[in-house]
Amino acid sequence: MKVLISGGSGFLGTALSKQLLAYYQTKDQPIDITWLTRNTQQAHLHDVQLMSYDTLKDTDAAFDVIINLAGAGIADKRWSDERKQQLMDSRIKPTQALLDFIARSSHKPTCLISGSAIGWYGTQGDTPLTEDSSFEEDFAHRLCAAWEQLATKATELGVPVALIRTGVVIHPSGGMLGKLLPPFKLGLGGQLGDGTQIMSWISREDWVAALIFVLEQQLAQTADAKPHAQIYNFTAPNPISNAVFTKAVGHWLHRPTVFTLPRSLLQLMFGEMATLLVDGQKVLPKALEDSGYSFLQPTIAEALREQSD
């Protein structure tokens, strides 16, 4: 099986690539992974090849699966107008490049798995949200909606699409938890705002395992089935408040968590982007669970405990 991954060198893509190689080795099935990148000189995993976007325009290579994870981190910088455009371009341009490749390819991939985020739902407090829920209009929704709408066009080219709406990914090597570790280890950790906002999270181990689960489902579809787009919320089944998360991290690190960053200060520091920190979303993984996926780390305590092993 030949797999093309955009964003393969990132926090999620690297972990996914390692597990794909290991998983299919245990099944005695050969797998070739290629990372689509703008920098073919970057460091990469052993047994992973690199391909530039310029090469993609002309290559006659064929891929059985395409996984689209490219996109600048939404919480990495304050949301200026320029940054918003960068966030949009970093998702739309790679996705369009993949669609152009699929359109001219004589060997269509079996499926396109395309990233998105639970930001699609917008800010909805503690309202339970599944893949069938509607949205509230805001920048995060518009960003995710444009990304998903473009990726879904692959169905018009005869390729099924799985849209992965990812929550806060928990792992100490990166993401939100990676950024929080330094202050928490110094005993400076604390809740954000009043701490009641709901955080929909998933461990990186479950994110990787769930994606391989979805991939296997896509590969098992009958060839004559009409291509369609399937949405999956990649969140654990037990969302928690920021206050509970803060206490759990403090307990895990054996550090106090007595500080509080007021909502007004966070809004002053981060502007519009502060909504990611102080406005909650209760997003549930209905499609994954209905499909039979069993979470490895369904609670935050289990997820953090695994990081200590």
Automatic annotation (TrEMBL):
Stretches assigned to the DUF1731 domain: 262-306
One Pfam family recorded for the sequence: Epimerase
InterPro entries registered for this protein in UniProt: DUF1731, Epimerase_deHydtase, NAD(P)-bd_dom_sf, SDR39U1
Organism, scientific name: Psychrobacter aestuarii
Name of the featured protein: TIGR01777 family oxidoreductase
Sequence ranges assigned to domain NAD-dependent epimerase/dehydratase in this UniProt record: 3-218
Record-stated family: Belongs to the NAD(P)-dependent epimerase/dehydratase family. SDR39U1 subfamily.
